[in-house]
Amino acid sequence: MVLLIDWGNTRLKWMKIDHLELAQVRAAKVNITDNWQEHTEIWASPIEAIFIASVRNDQDNQALSGHLLNYCDRIHFAKTEQIACGVENSYSDPETMGVDRWMGVIAAAAPEENIAVVSIGSAITLDVIQSAQHMGGHIVPGRRLMLESLNTTGRVRPLMNTQDDESFHLGQTTNDCVNAGINSMIEGYLRHIINQTKIEYQVSRFIFAGGGGKYWQQRLNSGTDQMEYSESLVFEGLVKRYSV
Ligand SMILES: Nc1ncnc2c1ncn2[C@@H]1O[C@H](COP(=O)(O)OP(=O)(O)O)[C@@H](O)[C@H]1O
Ligand SMILES: CC(C)(COP(=O)(O)O)[C@@H](O)C(=O)NCCC(=O)O
User: Fold this and answer.
1) CA within 20 to 30 Å of 20's CA: 75, 78, 134, 178, which one?
2) Quick one: what percent of the chain has pLDDT higher than 90?
3) What domain range includes position 41?
4) Is residue 235 part of a domain?
5) Among this protein's residues, is 100 annotated catalytic?
6) Residue 212 Cα, ligand 1 centroid: separation in angstroms?
7) Domain shared by 179 and 202, yes or no
8) Is 51 part of a structural domain of the chain?
């Protein structure tokens, strides 16, 4: 059994597969937790190897690997590279690019296709790939980070609405004003990058990922653009990178 881990700023995602094969990743269940220590099932069965894409700090990564070493001594933390699986990174200093983004880029890249990966998690990220060349991207604060940034005003102390706004509307409470406004910001940003990447980078395929990926892919998919949602994109990148 091989254990794959995608550790973002909010949640740890994990799956177990028999072999490093894309078909297995696509069929496997993605498990999600805010608190991995409580999930003994992660390491309950024998594990041959562990591949991790983590954007957490060294202390968190050491705590996780220190624990996992009790169950498996083949632990590999993926790193962002200049080139991998035929995909070239646009960063002048590739190691500074989040490994979750890089795994998404590796997973999405296809010869002779122009693709945008849009990940909607703690941060919202864009990565554009033209025929296996990473062209660059964006990083913007995600929904929670935008909302929490208003706490610094002292007066606006909003809470996240549990229900997603389905349409444009105006709030009549502080909370609703903030939530409706942030949703509009995300929608405006996403519509803008979809338009611009089509015009400027001839993007013809959009792959959404991350905790809000499914919601926004469904909401923005008018049927005219090729828009997909992938729950396992980072895992697919790990498999593509380490199955060679
Ligand atoms: N509809 C949505 N719109 C924007 N962001 C969302 C939505 N649903 C969930 N999220 C965000 O997704 C994040 C969790 O997604 P995830 O990809 O696991 O994040 P990370 O990889 O950063 O841990 C949360 O921070 C949450 O605010
Ligand atoms: C941009 C990110 C914070 C996104 O993380 P996430 O929302 O998936 O938790 C992460 O990819 C990261 O820490 N990147 C390093 C900076 C960069 O990619 O240039």
Assistant:
1) 134
2) 89
3) 2-77
4) yes
5) yes
6) 5
7) yes
8) yes
